[in-house]
Automatic annotation (TrEMBL):
Species this protein is from: Candidatus Eisenbergiella merdipullorum
Pfam family, one: Glyco_hydro_36C
One GO MF term: alpha-galactosidase activity
Identification of the protein by name: Alpha-galactosidase
Entry EC number(s): 3.2.1.22
Catalyzed reaction equations: Hydrolysis of terminal, non-reducing alpha-D-galactose residues in alpha-D-galactosides, including galactose oligosaccharides, galactomannans and galactolipids
Recorded family membership: Belongs to the glycosyl hydrolase.
GO biological process: carbohydrate catabolic process
Ranges where the Glycosyl hydrolase family 36 N-terminal domain occurs: 30-287
Amino acid sequence: MGIFYEESGRVFTLQTRHSTYQMKADGQGVLLHTYYGEKTDNTDLSCLIARGDRGFSGNPYSMGGTDRTYSLDTFPQEYSCFGTGDYRISALKVENADGSRAVSLRYAGHAISKGKYALPGLPAAYGTEEEAETLSVDLKDEESGVAVRLYYGVFEDLDVITRAAEITNGGEEGVTLLKAASLCLDWQTGEYDWITFHGRHAMERNFQRTGIVHGLQSIGSVRGASSHHYNPFVMVCGKNTGEEHGDCYGFSFVYSGEFLMEAEKDQMDQTRLICGIHPDDFAWKLEPGETFTVPEVLMAYSGEGQGGVSRIFHRLIRDHICRGQWKHSRRPVLINNWEGTYFDFTGDKLVDIAKDAAKLGIELFVMDDGWFGKRDSDNSGLGDWYPNEKKLGCTLKELGERITALGLRFGIWFEPECISIDSDLYRAHPEWAVAVPGRNPVLSRNQLILDFSRKDVQDYLIERISNVLGSAPITYVKWDFNRSICDKYSHALPADRQGEMAHRFVLGLYRVLETLTESFPEVLFEGCSGGGGRFDAGMLYYTPQIWCSDDTDAIERLQIQYGTSFGYPVSAMGAHVSAVPNHQTGRVTPLATRGCVAMAGTFGYELDLNKLTEEEKEEISRQISTFKELYDCIQYGDYYRLASPLSGSCTVWETAAPDASEALVSAVYHHVQANPVPVYVKLRGLSEDASYRVCLVGKTGETILSGAALMHGGLAIPPAKGDYCSWQIHLTRI
Ligand code: GLA
């Protein structure tokens, strides 16, 4: 059992295997946050809250003005409110019917139950009654009637606590939510860094570690999607925390839309983190009796540094976010024709590639953009989800049958949330495109956004996509989204509800995905947004893998996949071997290295196999056999970042079977040196007292070394033999 309530002090202590989280409803009814970190007992830690007269930090009226040592401006709290004496960043901001913006929450009750709460219409971690427990704490603003139910899901074994909330207007007049965050977390003591992941199209999730200093620091997105530019996953860690040691916290927002993660160090050197829907373009009207559900944040603490937190998130996402029959079944090795042909293909051309693919051991053929409507470039056709039989030379069903006859699965690409102006759908329904009346909308990739906040649009897409999926032997869908949203306006919403559009769009997307994944359980959905522009735990609830980046250069991918690995497992990261010179960078890397890097994800190819030499095809066939042989170790192994791509000459990572029976070490020289400095790494996740057979994949010969020697002494990575050389080193316990 992980949730404890101590009645006399009104203290809630959430215990996981290695962490403790605590809050307390104090004498004023304020829900104080008293602790989150390394495991301790259930002692009421509110004794640590320092009190003192903090000038210009006011005192609640209910204290009668006599106790100047009590101020909401300095006390750590569970869900901070705007406008009533806490001047720090707030979780909740409300506009009341009289135009005032004050809200102040007090404890009103709680409930503890087995199992994990679910959120209507939103993705959330799930768990059985044996795996998780739920605490809900009710808070209320007496004046307005606004009631907040905070949810906590405790996954004791996993060291994970989740948070979400429901906000109900229990008053008699309408209120508008201006900010409704999912997480507010205060650290009373300590100096912290935070690690964020920034990027751009074709270079997502770059690691950045900076101190949390006095003032505000934030990352977020106002682009309608979580974005390439900042990922909704952050870590907060102590100054001395490293990859494998020290206090580290991770926070992952289970949401695919606009978000804000803010950190503030306050006047008393305390740190506050707030995370939730971005408030800039958010205003949600709540009529009396209505409830708004705030999306979920996943939290984890580890004393084993960033690596410890990453491994918790890998398990959490694999086992409690991803769903459906593909969650744990072997994902097929795929070939995608995008970089192979772009828009220039026919059905016969695709079948020719598929023939080679089948011979090499590839299991799934994916037909990318260009199979529908009038779509021979990215200037037209989006929205017309009818196969272009003239281009394919046959029906979709026939093409699917030709591919499946070769022993391959068949998959296709969609971009359901977008529309081309040059499309039959736009001509029939211009009002379905997102645009502000009287203004010309911004074009991006020459396309507009479809208003997914509208139910009629959602229903149309559900029907159209279902029709296509039902018409041919399709077992895979790549779900793309190739622009950011702006000019937000929905013809289906009144003027005073336009601030709901961005969130309603995401809810609409989730409804469409929920319906389709339920109706087509055998279909593997892969998310995509110009690569990794919507790589978040929300999407992973529907699509257990996401195309990591449109940058397929193996060396650039080292950095992208390194950053991605902090919050997401290998099984979530779409990674393909592509042609050289690489189409994005012009770089030439060995085929072996491209294979090695792509194997750190859901492995596949994205090139025209017909253009390869026989030797290259043989090498691909060997790569595929290696991947299939090591599949479990790669996809379900514990992941260790041993040497970073951001420094040194060689990037090294390891996946070790959870029972320590085998491990795969992958090393890629991103910088070849003359008279090179040797590269050593200390392995992790092995049994100290066991012996391991150490082999270079694809080479003969072996060395026997003990787990202790490999973990404490280390392993020497063979030197580079040329530019961008790589090694895969397989260890098996004897
Ligand atoms: C996006 C995707 C690519 C490809 C193209 C097709 O950029 O990320 O993989 O599917 O769209 O237009």
